[in-house]
Amino acid sequence: MSVIDDIRQAAFELRRTDPQEAVRVLRRAAAQGGDAEVLARGALGEIYLEEFGDLDGAASEFRKVLAAAPGLAAAEIGLARTRREAGDFPEADAGFGRALESLARDVKGFEKEPPPGAEEVVLTMLEVAVELAELRAASGHDKALSVPIDEDVLHWAAGEKLFDAEGDQDDWIRFHALWTQLRLLTGRAEEALAAIRESERQGQLPPPEAARLVSLALEDLGDLPRAGAEARRMLELLPAPWPVGEVVRAAHLLGKNDILEQALGQWPPDSDEARTLREALGLVKLGTP
User: Nearest to residue 150, comparing CAs of 102, 104, 194?
Assistant: First the structure.
């Protein structure tokens, strides 16, 4: 295998089964310098952060990548995440902002002819925008403050049907879920509602996912009965057994325990899911008039 093949295998496969060996492979690759070093150090930063929780080690690798390739979005994102986890929110905010600028430049260049993988760049841009909005919300920013993302690019991606490329709805679901989350974080629940309904009408969102997102938007608006009704609609559109977290959420929004009892019959009595539902059933009963 070539050095690049070694890096890919270590970054995407070996890290899951033997992260220590992945680190050794990547360090050998980084020692060769050039493009291989940039790729290897980026992968090392991700492994240190995600597999070992080593914030300082990860930050060191991402900084080395940025020294060799200034403005590289993946390294800016990685470094910003280490700063967020370390509690350095101003530096994390600045890093996410630089990453958004870099990704936006890339996406702007796609408007003539989107290259393969363009959809993943758009989705990454949205993910970073959501992370930045969450960071600012946690830091006490007013919801009226915006995140520096040009949403015309998102409208362009939807209009170009960029997420049809994979032949399923997974990327569409991810796209609309992230955009809904961004709108809610920035105080635009009514806009989110209208967009979700239009996306379902156009066939970009399957009905269960549309119901889930509508429920989140209605909950954000404080309309708990309608949010609960949409949460129930989502569950009734899904095959059994229903996801326990969504069942518990629907029950609390509705203030009723019948949906918990219905879901309880879908799981084996000795399963963790059944235990969770029994616990939730007791809580809802206590809180129900």
Answer: 104
Query: Over the stretch 57-76, which tens digit does the pLDDT of each residue have?
Result: 999 999 999 999 999 999 99
Whether residue 133 is contained in a domain is answered as: no
**What is the distance between the alpha carbons of residues 36 and 94, in angstroms, rounded to a whole number?**
27
Range of the domain at 29: 1-70
| C-alpha to C-alpha distance for 163 and 168, rounded to whole angstroms | 8
Q: Please give the Cα distance from 243 to 251 (Å, whole number).
A: 13
> pTM for the full model?
0.89
The residue among 49, 70, 91 that closes a domain is 70
> Does residue 253 sit within a domain?
yes
Q: Domain tally for the chain?
A: 2
**Measured CA distances, 262 to 13, 164, 288 (Å):** 40, 36, 17
